[in-house]
Amino acid sequence: MSVRHDVVIVGGGGAGLRAAIAIAETNPSLSVAVVSKVYPMRSHTVAAEGGAAAVIKDNDSLEDHFRDTVGGSDWLADQDAVELFVNEAPAEMIQLEHWGCPWSREPDGTVAVRPFGGMNIERTWFASDKTGFHMLHALYQTSLKYSPIVSYDESFATKILVENGRCQGVSALDLRTGKVETILASALILCTGGAGRVFPFTTNGAINTGDGMAMAYRAGVPLKDMEFIQYHPTGLPGTGILITEASRGEGGILVNKDGYRYLQDYDLGKPVQVTDPEHPVKKSMELGPRDRLSQAFVKEMERGRTIPGPHGDFVLLDLRHLGEKKIDKKLPFVRELAKNYAGIDPVYEPIPVRPVIHYIMGGVDTDTDSATSLLGLFAAGEVACVSINGANRLGSNSLTELLVFGARAGRAAAIFATQNPDLDVEALEKQGADEQDRIARDFIRKEGGTERIATLRREMNETMESGAGIYRSERSLRDTCDKLMELRQRFSNLLIEDRSLTFNTELTSALELDFMLDVALAIGQSALARTESRGSHQRTDHPDRDDENFLKHSLAFHTDDGVRIGYKDVVITKWPPQERVYGK
Amino acid sequence: MDKTMELEIFRYRPEQDSEPTFQTYEVPFHTEWVILDAVNYIKDEIDGTLSYRWSCRMGVCGSCGMMVNGVPKLTCAAFLKDYTGKIRIEPLEGFPVERDLIFSMDDFIAKLKSVKPWIIRKEGEDKPLEEGEYLQTPRQLVEYQQYTMCINCMLCYAACPVYAHDNTFLGPAAIALGQRYNMDSRDQGRDQRQEAIASHEGIWQCTFVGECSAVCPKDVDPAGAIQRAKVASTIDYFKELLLPWGKKS
Ligand SMILES: Cc1cc2nc3c(=O)[nH]c(=O)nc-3n(C[C@H](O)[C@H](O)[C@H](O)COP(=O)(O)OP(=O)(O)OC[C@H]3O[C@@H](n4cnc5c(N)ncnc54)[C@H](O)[C@@H]3O)c2cc1C
Ligand code: SF4
Ligand code: FES
């Protein structure tokens, strides 16, 4: 038994919905399935606050967006991909405007833009400070008008089905019935988002467990640049809730325990007074890139100039000089979050913040059409690595990436599906039945385990933080990889108490942990092999960038004996690597 | 032992329970914990079989709504410290229960779709992308902005006495979202939405109790949206009545 569509998309976040609409618009006769483990509007795109970058104003240029992105990436981004990204971004953003996204406006009715870290000019579109929320709801609500789009809500994909060297569908657990369905299609697009939950302290939601990365990896597709993990410099201690970079874009400053703007000590420029009309200076101080700001925090902590707290050391993000009116107009969600979750009203008090795991630059290796090395398999959004982000993503490029590459993936998959209508149905159904058996045998009916899911997850989180955090070394990474191998062993002794077929969330937690263990090891091994420091990957034992040996993407391949690391060249079209300079 | 709290949680597993039961769990008390943290603690450390929905834990994905001591709440935004005694946790009222704290969203999804929550332009009046964005002043944005804030959390349905009595009622959030588009200066599709909104199952069933706006965690004010829709529809009614007559003269 199976169901059949032309294209199946796994993931109903920004990337998945954009892809679905692109297919429906490219060829309305194609049937498109959107499989999502949560209702699409729950996807974590909903949490994005600050904004989405695209050149729209006369004083800005595509070339500048290109340069900011490539420099921000520490030259690890592919320049052909970045060029295409900045070129297509404006039309995609306007399209979203036409679909009803409530962008914040200038008095003349044009869309407003704000400054963001690492960008040389105001180019970040925003919808107050709930940009991702508004983009996701606009996309979801718009998607409802296309009848070829069929949704499989609360359906959890477990395995990519490959037959005859081609991806031809996916197995997905229907949470309501517990049945593992075989969903067949000529093309599959992975849009499953990030993997922040591999770490303990993260801005990512519970659903960001790297499922799509692990599924692609198990199907033989390499994961690219997995060692590059972004820490966002301003998360609330304890919960990891994000205080958006837009708060610094609007003029917020970071100070240490003495009220000193410590970023000036870390090669990020000199501070100008907050009352100076020049403030905030682009690509300088608080508007430096995230990797550098998070690294500065660690150094500042080592100097004993941060503030100790129950959830680790913190510094202060001061918005008071912006005044209540501006805060309420531009940053109302920041005020709401700080009040609710830190008991602090930023109008009157500075907000305690510390670096927090936020985004993974790496992911499923794709080309600029979002195609992977496996025929029929595409990937877009945070799950994918094209790469436009290289070693460090610039804030507000990701939401735009969902649109540009979601749409490209949709169009490319539509063409591929039209050209390859035939499927090996019988063999696929057999695979689907085997997958149903595996889930039943290894999980739902599993007897006698003793390891709690939460215990293994916690130990995985701890070892990732201690060994693969902001600063790493061969020693710390080896310890982490060893620990992950031990956890993989112990996973086979997992305790499952829930035998139910209806909304068995213990089963989904177990499947997510299973995926995360694969993703974590790919991160650890890729980081171990890269003996240089670049962007967000900082090796204390190899502190310098090494273009001679590592101006390359890492590729992590799944093998029976564990992870194999390979490399592929970075595409440099017009701007050879230089020193990365901020604050000048 | 450090301070603890008791949670009494609604349990229902359709394959084994003929009726719902309540199960009590003891959890540690932390001042910074929200109810969702306590429920997660139960799942992680005490009873892996408890099922519920959550994701963002920052009040924006809309998935963690539950009845807390009989009141619809986002459990990631309701703090343990604001409660004393045993806390009773149930699935949001007014919906069929699937299992434990998980209820069916089918009805809402269908209703949401029925109000056509997307920008509708008149035939041939779409602006080509090359011509850029539609202009919309900050003032025009404010007209509908409040209604865009809905996170689809369903608390308003759980609080609505009309929906509890008759679930054919379109309900607060769906009406507010229809209004959101009706009042957007870029939209020209109000007539097409009236079918759902101004129907018997639409705004006219609302008796203006206002409970929906009271529980809404995002200040959407669905009750206000319903009122505005009623006023606008009444004007339509008079226009229809008067226009043919007016034309004659
Ligand atoms: C707090 C926060 C703030 C941010 N702010 C910004 C910002 O201001 N600007 C910016 O550019 N970027 C921002 N980002 C980054 C950006 O929001 C994300 O990279 C982006 O939204 C990811 O979108 P996505 O579509 O790839 O994935 P998601 O929106 O995470 O969606 C993933 C989808 O995959 C589905 N899924 C996953 N696994 C499975 C499975 N096994 N089976 C079925 N379905 C599955 C989920 O149900 C979900 O629908 C922010 C991120 C966070 C966490
Ligand atoms: S109107 Fe308010 S209470 Fe109702 S679903 Fe929307 S956000 Fe929730
Ligand atoms: S978990 Fe997302 S709203 Fe509570």
- Tell me the overall shape of chain A: globular
Q: Please tally the β strands of chain B and state the result.
A: 7
Number of domain modules of chain B: 2
Biggest interface reads: A-B, 61 and 61 residues
Secondary structure: number of strands of chain A:
23
Number of helical regions of chain B = 9
Distance between the termini of chain B: 86 Å
Tell me the radius of gyration of chain A.
Answer: 23 Å
CATH class of the largest domain in chain A: Alpha Beta
Radius of gyration of chain B: 22 Å
Helix content of chain A: 25-40%
Global shape of chain B: elongated
Query: CATH architecture of the largest domain in chain A, please?
Result: 3-Layer(bba) Sandwich
Which structural class should the secondary elements of chain A be placed in?
alpha/beta
Element order of chain B: H for helix, E for strand:
EEHEEEEEHHHHHHHH
Percent strand of chain A equals: 15-25%
Instruction: Assign the CATH class of the largest domain in chain B.
Output: Mainly Alpha
Helical fraction of chain B equals 25-40%
Unreliably modeled segments of chain B: 245-249
